[in-house]
Structure formats: structure tokens, C-alpha cells
Amino acid sequence: MQPRASILRRVACLAAVCALTAVGADAASAATKKPVKKPAPPVCNLVKKAPSGLSDQSMDITSADVATNATTLTTVIRVVKLTTTDTSSPEGRQWEFDFKVDGSSLDVLAVTNGPFGTTTTYNYGTATLDPTKNEIRYSISLADFAKATGTSLIKNGKSVFTSFAASSSTVMQSPSTALGHTLATLGQGDTAQSAPTAKYTAGQPSCVKVGS
User: Domain residues of the chain, as ranges?
Assistant: First the structure.
């Protein structure tokens, strides 16, 4: 019969071996565990500038963005203070957002507002004048955008937008889109351009709510 002290020593040794084995397993597990990749921050303010101090604040651009999802493209132009009607420009106002897709020629999306309502480029999509957020938003389906501009369908994760520019102007709004959205440009409001390095990859997270 083994002495009690000998048995206790063996039990203690076995416990120490088990503890060391567990520590080693935990260390190996920690070494092989892949770090959690943080999601990319939303793209915002592709175009950004300080207010120009225009007397008509609905024409004074502060920033602009574009974003897409699987079906829709949305542009946003932000101004100092947007109004749904404008006595300073009774004939009409227009806001344009320009960009390149995959290096193609500049595409222009415009929203015109005046005595005949609110109209959009190509007669496709919908425009929203949001005086609460001071935003002019334009949403168009990717299929309609490709058809209207004669360009390839934008592909999420692949198509790259660059060369962003936003502008505003006073116009003489056309009474019929069959004649075009404007009959004449009466005056330049404001302009703003992105940094040369600014880009947006289709489908990338954005501060823009697509389709709004």
C-alpha cells in the first residue's frame, strides 16, 4: 500500500500537467484565431466645401455624394438652406451632380425645380427636395441610368466612380419636358468639386440612404 503522501504528490503532478496542457491549448487557439475585420466606414462627403455666402442659400452648396445598391443609384446635393419654392429664382432652379464611372465621360444628373414642378434628367427616376435636411436627392434605377446614358450597367463591387462635381444655377424652366428641362440658363449659382483622389466603389457603404 502506497503512503498517503506519495499519492498526494502524484495527484498534484497530474493536476499541474493538465493545467499546463490547457494553457498550451488556449495559447494555440489564440494564435490560430483570425482577427475580426472591422467594417469599412461609410463613404461620405465626396464633395465638400465651405459655404460661399450666396444670398440665395438654396443655391449655396456645402457637400454632395453618390451611392448605389443592387438596383438603384442615388445622388445627394446639400445646401446651406433649402426651400421648396424660391422667390429669388421664380423662373427655376437647377442642381447638377457630375461624375465618371470606370473612367467614362462625365455623366450628369440634374434636378430642376420651378413654376412647373420638379423634374429630373432623362425623365427617369424621382427627385426629392428635403428642406429639413437641406438636401436635393435624385434616385434612378441602374437599368434606366444605363439606358439613358448609353453606358454599361453599373456593377456593385466593381464599378468605380470618380471626378465628382456639383453645381447650381438659376434657369428658365421648360413648361414641358418634351422641350427639355430648361429653356435657358439665367445665372450661375455655385460650384464644388471633389479632391482628385476621391472615389466610390458601387455598393460601398455610404451615408446616403439609397432610394430615398
Answer: 1-37, 47-201
| pLDDT tens profile 131-175 | 999 999 999 999 999 998 888 899 999 999 999 999 999 999 988
For 129, the grid coordinates are 427636395
Amino acid at site 36: V
What does pTM read for this prediction? 0.81
**Helix/strand/coil (H, E, C) string of the chain?**
CCCHHHHHHHHHHHHHHHHHHHHHHHHHHHHHCCCCCCCCCCECCCEECCCCCCCCHHHCEEEEEEEECCCEEEEEEEECCCCCCCCCCCCCEEEEEEEEECCCCCEEEEEEEECCEEEEHHHCCEEEEECCCCEEEEEEEHHHHHHHHCCCCCCCCCCEEEEEEEEEEEEEECCCHHHCCEEEEEEEEEEEECCCCCEEECCCCECCCCCC
CATH number of 47-201: 2.60.40
User: What is the length of the chain?
Assistant: 212
Distance CA 49, CA 129 (A): 20
Hey, what's the cell of 100?
Answer: 465618371
47-101 pLDDT, tens digit per residue, is: 999 999 999 999 999 999 999 999 999 999 999 999 988 888 899 999 999 999 9
